[in-house]
Each structure stands twice: as C-alpha cells, then as structure tokens.
Amino acid sequence: MKALISAVLAAAVLGSLGPARPALSAPAHSHGDARLEVTVDADKLTVRFESPLDNLLGYERAPKTAAERQAAAALLARFEGTPPLVRPDPAAECTRGEVSVASEVLTSPTPKAGEHADLEAVFAFTCRQPGRLGALEVGFFEAFPRLRRIDASWALPQGQGQRRLTRGTKLLKLSR
Questions:
Q1: Overall average pLDDT of the 99-109 stretch
Q2: What's the domain count of the chain?
Q3: For burial by CB atoms within 10 Å, which of 56, 79, 147, 168 has the most?
C-alpha cells in the first residue's frame, strides 16, 4: 500500500511540473536580454522567444498614442513577416506553420498596468528531416536594435545545450 501511495504522489508531483522545457540561464526580465528555446518532438520544431517589451518597442505599457499603436501593430506583424526572424537549417527541410505572439499589454483586450511587460512568440515548424537540424538563423538582433543578448537553449533528439548569443550573431549552432 505504501508503494502505491508513493507512486501516486510521485506521479502527481511530476505531472504538476508540466512538459519538460530546456533550462534557461537568463533572468526572467532583464532589459537588453531575451530568451530562446528550441525543441524538437518527432517532426515538430518549436522555437519560443521571450523578451521584455522594452527591447522591442522601447517601453513596457499599452500604446497610448496613434504612433505607438502603429508601432505596436508593426511589431506584432514583424513576427510573421519577411524576412523571417527564425530560419531552420535547410537540411532539416522544415516548413513554417503557425506563429503566435502574446503580450498582455499588446494583445489583450484589457491590458493590466504594471512595471514590466514581456512578449512571447512561438514559431512552429514541421520538418521532414528533423535529425539534420544543425542550426537556426536568427534575425532578432537586426530587427530589434535594443536587444543585446539572447540566452538560447535547445532540446533535440541528438542532444541538449545552451549558448549565449550577442549582437551581430546570426546563427545559433545547435551542438555542444
């Protein structure tokens, strides 16, 4: 009976942790810094980008003026635009799927006021050769001049790793 109770408790604790995601070393909210997580599950590649809104717009609140609303709309459109902010290694033969962008002060109909606001973008791809994914081309530094560094981590069938990207970096090599 004790073994059954222990197994049920262990399952409950592990289940409450949610799906495994790579560990990131960046603080939760630091101006100039962003985080990037890359995961592959079967033929699905997911790239998650998180950044303080200040890095992307220069402020962290709901837009107040017509010019700010236009800049916020352009920012949201940029994540789906051309050139793409994320391009997988051509050898992996990936096709871009949905791009979702969320920021409480930009995408919520009733944004909450607060000191810090972030943006999270998720890029989904389907890859014919996911085992050949060796790198990602990233365009975040070119698109967002206030961004100084990105702490990247990945979990792929061929291994896990972390790397810090700095201004001028265009390629995230997914190897140790």
A1: 85
A2: 1
A3: 56
Question: What is the reported pLDDT for 109?
Answer: 66
What residues make up the domain containing 90?
34-173
Task: Report if residue 84 sits inside a domain.
Answer: yes
Residues 36, 153 contacting (CB under 8 angstroms): yes
- Quote the pTM value: 0.80
Helix, strand or coil for residue 75?
helix
Beta strands in the chain (DSSP E): 33-41, 44-52, 86-88, 94-102, 118-127, 135-138, 149-156, 159-166, 171-173
**Residue 152 counted as domain residue:** yes
14 within domain boundaries: no
Closest among 81, 76, 73, 48 to 152, alpha carbons compared: 48
